[in-house]
């Protein structure tokens, strides 16, 4: 093989890697998500919805992943005996997507309180309780 053929073969191989990565990403975003409900211990399968509810308990956030359409809503419900502060990742700066906390640094909920937020920014976002950073979950906005 001469030098031109080696360069041409390398370009073809590199292009195929780039194209396969692009097609893989498109396929992944259309997949159904699977979450585990910590209350029942059963797996739940769901597709993108207009509204989801996340319950915060003493053992964490349930479900561990929710998917909503852009413009969809998430209702955060505090089922603990103390205040919680819903916040976007990264702890402690909360700058990933503050829509999850209604545009605030944190969304504080008293015991038994709920709040609903609207999400428009597409992507996968980490969420946690600022007062208990190990209580966390993922929000996917499509």
Give a written overview of the molecule:
The protein has 142 residues and is an alpha+beta fold. The chain has two domains: 1-31; 46-141, Sandwich (Immunoglobulin-like), CATH 2.60.40. It contains one helix and ten strands, in the order H-E-E-E-E-E-E-E-E-E-E. The chain has one helix at residues 3-29, and strands spanning 33-36, 43-46, 49-57, 60-62, 65-78, 84-88, 107-109, 114-119, 123-129, 132-141. The strands form two sheets. Strands 3, 4, 5, 6, 7, 8, 9 and 10 form an eight-stranded mixed sheet that branches. The protein has a two-stranded antiparallel ribbon with strand order 1-2. A hairpin with a 6-residue loop joins strand 1 and strand 2 (43-46). The longest helix is centred in the first third of the chain and has 27 residues, at 3-29. The N and C termini lie far apart (48 Å). The relative contact order is 0.17. Residues 14-46 have low confidence and may be disordered.
